[in-house]
Amino acid sequence: MSFLYVHGGLTPAQWVTLLPILILSLTIVVVTSAIAIKRHHWWNATISVVGLNLALLPLFVHFWVPELWTLPLPQTVTPLLGIDNYACFYMAMILVTALATATLSHAYMEGYTGNREEVYLLLLLSTLGGLVIVCSRHFASFFIGLELLSVPLYGMAGYLVKERRSLEAGTKYLVLSAVASAFILFGMALIYAQTGTLAFADIGARAGDLAGSSRSVMILGSAMLLVGIGFKLSLAPFHLWTPDVYEGAPAPVTSYLATASKTAVFALLVRYFVEARAYEMPTLVNVLSILAILSIVIGNVLALRQDNLKRLLAYSSIAHFGYLLVALIASGPLAVEAVGVYLLTYVVTTLAAFGVVTLMSSPYRDHDAEDLFDYRGLFWRRPYLTAILTVALLSLAGVPLTAGFIGKFYVMTVGADKHLWVLLAAVVLGSAVGLYYYLRAMIQLYLRQRWVQKYSAPLNWAQGTGGGMLILLMLAMLLLGIFPTPFINLVQAAGLH
Fold this sequence. Notes:
It contains 20 helices and two strands. The chain is mainly alpha-helical. The longest helix has about 30 residues.
C-alpha cells in the first residue's frame, strides 16, 4: 500500500468509493465468461442481477446506514473522476434502473428463440458508462462514459434481429448518435482552444476572463456541446429520432433508454452547468430557455396525435425534459434539488409504464403491445396490472398524491422563486395538454371489449421477477406522492456544494 502512496496511486478511501464501478466491472467479466462457458438465460440474468445488487450495496450503506460509512466525501479519483454525494445518488438511481430493466428483460426474453444472454452484457456495459458519466468532472471522462453508455444501446435497440423495426431503431440511433458525438467533440475542442483545460471547474474559472472573439468561440463551443447533449436528452428540435427508436426497440430496452441513459446525461449537464458557471453566460441561458419552451410545446402537441403508447410516452418524455430544463435554468441549490426530485419521480414512473408494456409484450409476436387499441378493456382481464399503468399515467400527468405531482411542484417552486414567468406559463399549459392525452390513454383501459385481444400479460404475471419489480415501482410512485419526505431528504443530502 505504501507503494501506491509514493507513486501517486489510489488511497484505500478512493478504492472504497470506487466500489460500485469496480463491482460492476467485475460483474461484466463474470457474465462474459459465463456466456463463453455455457449459454443459460436464467443463470446469466441472475448473475447480472446479483452483480447490480452488490454494486448498489455500498451506496445503500452510504445513504441509509451512514454510521457504517466513515469515509469522507468528496473523493477525487484522478482529475477525471470525483465521487461525492451527488455522484453517489445518481449512481444509485442508474443501478436501480438497470436492475429493473434486467428483471423486466428476463420476463420479456423468455419467449425469444435467438441468443438471449448478450442483452444482459450490453445492459451492464451501458450501466457502467452511466456510472462514469455521473462521476465525471472532466470532458475526457465524460466522453468515454458517454460512448460506453451509448454504444451498447445500439445493439440493445436492434437486438431483435429478425424484426425490421428493431433493426431500424438500432440503425437510426447509431447514425444520429454518432453525429451528436461529433458535435460534442467539436464543442469540447473549441472550449479547450479558448480555456486550455478540459476540467469543468477550471473552464468556469477561465471563461470569465475571455472577451471579444475568444468569448464568441467559447459560446459557439458551448452551443455545439448543447446540440449533442440535446440529442442525447431528445430535446426539441433534436428529438426526431425518439419516437421511432422508442417504438422499434424492445420494450425493456426502451424503458432503459428513456430513464437511465437520460438521467446520466442530465446529471452531468447539471454538474457542468454549476461547476463551469455556465449560468453566467446569458446567451447560453437564453438558448436553454428556447429549447425548454420548444420541448414542452412540441412534445405535448405531438403526443396528442398518437395512438401508439410507446410513441406517446416518447413525445411525453420530450416534454418532461423541457420541464427539467426550467429547473436547470433557475440554477441555485434549490434548483439542483428540484432536478433530483423530478428525475427520481420521472424514472420510477416511466419504468412502471414501460414495465406494463414489457409484460404485455413478447419478442415472438409481430411487435410489442404498443397500440392503445391493444390495451382496450385491459381492466376486465388484468385489473391489478391496469391499476399500475393507471397510477403511472396519472403520475406522468402530475396528479396529486402521485410521484409526478411532487416533481412538478418543485419545478413550479424554483421557477416562481427566480421569476421565470414565461417558462412557468409553458409548464402550466403543457401540463394541461398532457393531462388530456394521458386520460385519453387511461380511458382505453376501462372500455368494454367483447372479443379476445391478441396481447395480454400472463395470468401469473405478479409471481415473476418482472411482476414483482412492477409492484415495487407502483408502491414507490404512491409513497413518493403521499409521503415524500424521506426521498426529499435523500436528494437534499446529495446536493452539489
